[in-house]
Design brief:
The protein is of the alpha/beta class. The chain is about 50% helix and about 15% strand. α4 runs parallel beside α5. It is globular and about 70 Å long. It binds nicotinamide-adenine-dinucleotide.
Amino acid sequence: MKDLKEQTAFVTGGASGIGLATARALARRGARLILADIVADKVEAAAAELRAAGTDAIGLTLNVAEEAEWARAGDEAQAFGEVSVLISNAGVGGGSGAFETYDPEVWRWAYAVNAHAHLYACRTFLGAMKASGRPGHLTLTSSMVAIVPPPISVAYISSKFATLGIAMALRNELADTRVGISVLCPGMSATNIVATTATLRPGATEQGEAAQTAQNMSGVLVGGMSPDRIGERVVRAIEASEFFIFTHPEWKGMAEAQFAEMLAAFGESADPSYKGDDIAGLIAANGAQRMNIAVG
Ligand SMILES: NC(=O)c1ccc[n+]([C@@H]2O[C@H](COP(=O)([O-])OP(=O)(O)OC[C@H]3O[C@@H](n4cnc5c(N)ncnc54)[C@H](O)[C@@H]3O)[C@@H](O)[C@H]2O)c1
């Protein structure tokens, strides 16, 4: 999507961190901004900041995890302008501690915010974006942890794998439309995510080792990349129609090792007499024409 001037962008998690930075970068291109966030005063302040800099912008209070709230957000957005850029970015940490000790309520919350919300966002805007026939773009925020999982929260990592999976699957579906798609996989960034997570998480406040881990994570992320650099990179990827947005090349060696292990695990067929899967038939059975990588 080469020209973002006068385009209307909807950014979830737009009150802080990478979402706000992406909004600022879009504003620098002359886009109009709808910031959506669960924290009402922060989203209003962020929209006011953009307006003060000359951008046409509004803030909406929205809990992305609550499907019912999306209808109102969709109506308010529609009244502002026809959304052609959708940045589904809101996210939270998944909590800390050993997997078997997770609170199921925190688990469901992390999945609802980090993964399920992409469906609600797309149900609200993607149909109209496709039907308009005009160029549009969808960006989902995953994480580098979905490419190379470090020993951190299983809930966070797996929900970010879900986002990567949604993006990779949707990419096929959007291939013959004018809506481009990107998946953002950043490494560490100096944002408010640890504090946001502690404030928004359901259930009891984390105690003991889990609380210590969260505090340690806060200390590590302070030294992370500036979200403003990431936001600018996201917008360049939208302009250049890039699917994968990797901002932290220091992870590449680990990604190579990760994929080398996977590739090495492809051995003999479990049934040497089997003719092999009919991938073209699989594609046709789903009414599709092709997929993004060459078959066979
Ligand atoms: N910071 C990092 O190191 C890092 C690394 C990789 C990926 N990410 C991802 O980047 C995205 C943005 O996070 P960030 O680091 O900028 O954190 P952040 O906390 O600064 O910003 C996230 C924003 O999302 C909002 N939010 C949280 N839950 C919400 C909900 N239910 N409904 C609406 N808004 C909600 C928060 O209020 C906050 O304003 C997340 O998806 C995160 O997982 C962050």
